[in-house]
Amino acid sequence: MSSLVIGGIVFACVFAGAVLGLVVRSMLPDHHRSAESKDAIKLVMGLLATMAALVLGLLIGSAKGSYDTQSNEVTQLAANVVLDRALAHYGPEAKDSRDLLRRSVARVVDQMWPKSGSEAAELNPAATGAEGLYDKIQALSPQSEVQRSLRAEALRIATDVGRTRSLLFAQAGRSIPLPFLLILVFWVAVIFVSFGLFAPFNTTVVTALFVGALSVSGAIFLILELDQPFQGFIQISSASLRLTLANLGQ
Questions:
Q1: Of 88, 150, 154, 223, which sits with the fewest C-beta atoms within 10 Å of its C-beta?
Q2: Does 197 have pLDDT greater than 60?
Q3: pTM over 0.90
Q4: More confident residue, 117 or 35
Q5: Rounded distance, CA 94 to CA 167, Å?
Q6: pLDDT on residue 179
Q7: Is 190 exposed, middle or buried (0-12, 13-18, 19+ CB in 10 A)?
Q8: Average pLDDT over residues 20-39
């Protein structure tokens, strides 16, 4: 389910809570709307609002941390393609390895950022065909100390590239626990019920409740978008890898 759909569901739940409060308000006897009743409900809602704010902050921190981690890994992946320069210095014997590296990087870019927006990003390291790169570098036969050093460096970088790709694949799932999200939406819906419970029914109040529900659902939408950085509206930029790809083989 896309982040936009989930955000729409959250908005519907929260705004429905506000409307429910407005409807229930008209049916409550006067003594249920006394100052003492309002004070008691305000205390309970204050507690809920505090817990909701803490959970919302935790979810935002978790989603932003996940986004930043994967963004740094993409940058590291682009930096590790310096492997091409090590192979270039090795000599013409490494031409096949360099060609395979370029094809692998091009495949990574196409799979992580598909041209068709309807396609999901493919982060599986096995899907790029890059596993043969290590074997091809391993098969090189260095004839000098310099070549032996360059081959060892190329093998180390190739291992780092594979490790980074595996990390991206392992982090592909959502990091936001579903129970956290459900509890947060429930708390916010209850809070909006209390808003409608003691607010007069007029255009200004309904508009304010609408904007509030839209803002909360927008926050949830942003959290879910940050949690899936290779699809949706907020994606990790492919510029670093594309720039690296353009310079490969030169």
A1: 88
A2: yes
A3: no
A4: 35
A5: 27
A6: 83
A7: middle
A8: 80
- Between vectors from CA 236 to CA 234 and to CA 240, what angle results, nearest 5°? 145
Domain boundaries, the chain: 3-68+177-227, 82-173
User: CA 42 to CA 137: how far, in whole Å?
Assistant: 68
How far apart CA 209 and CA 215 sit, in angstroms, is 10
Taking the alpha carbons at both ends of the chain, their separation in whole angstroms is 43
Given a cut of 70, whether residue 139 has pLDDT beyond it is yes
Q: Which amino acid belongs to residue 147?
A: Q
Chain mean position to CA 35: 45
- Tens of pLDDT along 66-106? 889 888 988 888 888 778 888 888 888 888 888 888 888 88
Give the Cα separation of 90 and 195 in Å (integer). Answer: 70
200 CB-near residues (< 8 Å, 6+ apart): none
Residue 191 confidence (pLDDT) above 90: yes
Residues 6+ apart with CB under 8 A from 168: 70, 73, 74, 77, 123
Count Cα atoms within 13 angstroms, Cβ side, for 171. Answer: 23
The greatest distance separating any two alpha carbons of the chain, rounded to the nearest whole angstrom, comes to 95
Question: Which H helix or E strand runs over 192?
Answer: helix 178-197
Q: Distance between CA 149 and CA 136 in Å, rounded? A: 16
CA distance linking residue 38 with residue 22, whole number of Å: 15
Model confidence at 135: pLDDT above 70: yes
Q: Token match 């309807």: residue?
A: 118
